[in-house]
Amino acid sequence: MIDEYNALIENKTWELVPRHPDAKFIHSMWIFRYKKKSDGSFERHNTRLVGDGKSQQVGVDCDETLSPMVKPSTIQIVLSIALSNSCPIHHLYVKNAFLHGDLHEVAYMHQHLGFRNPVHPDYVCCLNKSLYGLKQAARAWYQQFADFVSSIGFSHSKSDHSLFIYSKGNDMAYILLHVDDIILTTSSDALRRSIMSLIASKFAMKDLGPLSYFLGIAVMRHASGLFLCQKKYAEEILDRAGMASCKPAHTPVDTNSKLSASSDSLYADPTHYRSLVGALQYLIFMRPYISYIVQQICLHMYIPMDEHMNALKQILRYVQGTLHFGLHLYKSSLSDLTSYSDADWGGCPDTRRSTPGYCMFLGDNLFSWSSKRQPTPSRFSAEAEYRGIENVVSESCWICNLLLELHCSIHKATLVYCDNVSAIYLSSNPVQHQRTKHIEMDIHFVREKVAKGHVRVCHVPSRYQIAYIFTKGLPAVLFEDFRDNLGVRKPPAMIMGCIKRVIYP
Q1: Containing H/E element for 124?
Q2: Contacts of 44 (CB under 8 A, 6+ apart)
Q3: Could you say which of 31, 311, 317, 461 has the lowest number of CB atoms within 10 Å?
Q4: How confident is the model at residue 498 (pLDDT cuts 50, 70, 90)?
């Protein structure tokens, strides 16, 4: 507590002023916790003085509170580029990051017991800088960091505002900011040391060395690239569910049944169900193959039934048997953007809405995927498939813009593989009839990209349609085949060589 208090005083977080009779005070409290290492063992105790943001009203006590967060796709693209160019990838941590943000609103806080100024014990703290817990703290820190890196030559990415790009001659550097964690990759070690020195001159920073553990994801280097795994996080979910020693399942989803809201027996503890579902949503980051069933159980968070909890338990049983699995990123070509799109037409038993899904590869590396129920029903299968293609094309436009900013532009057309012949025909032929009038905007958007040569929609046989794993339950053999094609496998020490994705010719 003394160390934390001294750090706040040294940072000039507040100044003591006489108490104003009409002043509104922000409550504060001490938070005690301990930090763990990547293997789950104890690292150190941590104490923090935080403000109570619940007592603040947006528009009264603070204005804008939104702070950008780096997208998972952006992280994986930057890592793929760094791998392909053999660039160093470093991990930095900013100490007391939120305390660096300047507070533009007037805010008062009482002095804490045991830390009152002996000369002015009745004075109050007028905050100059933000505290952890305040609604505007994250935004204030982000703005402070963004302004500083702009002053040393970095520019904002328009595609992802938490990505900062430095380009000068042959020197290239990328900064990915996620709250107080920073991934820095540069074209040379000399440039890395120079940038780290500049950041350290402004913020109290801890150098964590080459990237090994980031946002609960363990990063292992091997001969062909990186292995990303969430084993520790998965074990914590199993412990929370009381299934740490459960029997493993062969697949995470039943191939026969569809989850429905019309079930007779309500689950006894909805809060427990919602907590586990929320935890599984983060587990998708390195386990894309469970995206379909996780989004299915997410649809029933308000009124969970026993049937839905049984589906959740099957996911956890499958995770138990694949704890050591993770996502592989390889050194590969950055000139090809390939995607697979599929849709389960009318698959929802309650609303008959379709569930489209897609996955996108940059070279051999998976970086983007989705499984999400459509907001409205589709009248026929080609419409459901076509709307799925439209989602892929929209994502590819964003990806191409991001790669252009990263100076890795793609000059080839994005390949979109689909197994529905009618949807492929609609994408390239100016046919408009009664059945397609209501999806005219989607049709014109995709056709324009196809006509300009930015996108090619191609047919793929069902046996090679990897996107099936995002739209429906599959038999164990087919599921494992598609899972391997996504790049999700055992750690390098447990496999013989590196198996690349089987590309349909």
Answers
A1: strand 124-127
A2: 34, 35
A3: 461
A4: very low
Q: The tokens of 94 are what?
A: 């900013």
* The pLDDT value given to residue 236: 92
Instruction: Pull the structure tokens for residue 31.
Output: 């938070």
Residue 416's identity, in one-letter code, is: V
Type of residue found at 321:
G
Cα distances (angstroms) measured from residue 284 to each of 277, 288, 291, 293, 436: 11, 5, 6, 11, 34
pLDDT tens-digit series, residues 257-314: 678 887 778 898 999 999 999 999 999 988 999 999 999 999 888 889 998 999 999 9
Q: CA neighbours within 13 Å on the CB side: how many for 32?
A: 2
- Tell me the CA distances in angstroms from 405 to 118, 165, 393, 401, 500, one per residue in order: 55, 8, 19, 6, 28
Q: Is 0.85 surpassed by the pTM of this model? A: yes
Copy the structure tokens of residue 467: 């996107």
Residue 383's Cα: distance from chain center in Å?
Answer: 29
Q: What are 73-112's pLDDT values in tens digits?
A: 999 999 999 998 889 999 999 988 888 888 888 888 888 8
